[in-house]
Amino acid sequence: MTSTALATIHGMRGALQNFRNSTPRSTPGSTGYLRFSKGDWLFGRDDSALDPESVWIVHPQSLQHGWICWRNGSLFHEVLIPFTQQLPLENTLKTAPEPAEGSDDQPGYQHQMAFQAVCIEGGHVGLQLQFKTGTVGGRTAVDKMVEAMMARMDDVEATGQGGFYPVIMFGVDSYKHKTRGKIFVPLIEVVGWSTNEPGWLWDVTR
Q1: Pairing relation of β-strands 48-49 and 40-43?
Q2: How far apart are CA 60 and CA 167, in angstroms?
Q3: Which residues of 156-176 are buried (b: 16+ CB within 10 A; e: fewer)?
Q4: What's the pLDDT tens digit per position in 153-181?
Q5: What are the E-state strand segments in the chain?
Q6: In this predicted model, what pLDDT tens digit does every residue of 101-120 receive, in sequence order?
């Protein structure tokens, strides 16, 4: 492994750790949007269903973090920056109005994470999507992926072999809430690792 590659790993690992620490614990071309809603992965303006067997590659440098505030179903304010930059303090943001009485809106801002992925197998080959999430379940799924990336970087640095671009599949899990019944949560399963070389070579780990 070249010294440049090692330096890249060192720098990215540090930035990824900062990305994880910032989380409050209380195909080239246009990029579409992916969202998780009531147990379904949907994308595009028409809310097309995602192929559950599709396989995707995440570019680590597409990771972003920030803040988001919704009021009465409309976006009030959003900040989203590269993970290599320090997350601004919530009290430095535009003051969020109080939620309306009886509203499901959360007070203040919610921390959010985002990344881009390109489909390499399945029904959407070549499609590039961005997933943004400000929910606890979504942030947990992204955080677990980042944790796996950091562990993988340690292995690549030690052996000088392999790649650290996550190869993932999008899944669904659920749990039973005492008052709200069955709650669906997103899963991001790392199924392999890719190099950043042309051809998107990857090694299956499952």
Answers
A1: antiparallel
A2: 11
A3: beeeeeebbbbbbbbeeeeee
A4: 999 888 888 888 999 999 999 988 888 78
A5: 32-37, 40-43, 48-49, 55-58, 64-71, 74-82, 110-121, 128-133, 165-177, 181-194, 202-204
A6: 888 888 999 999 999 999 98
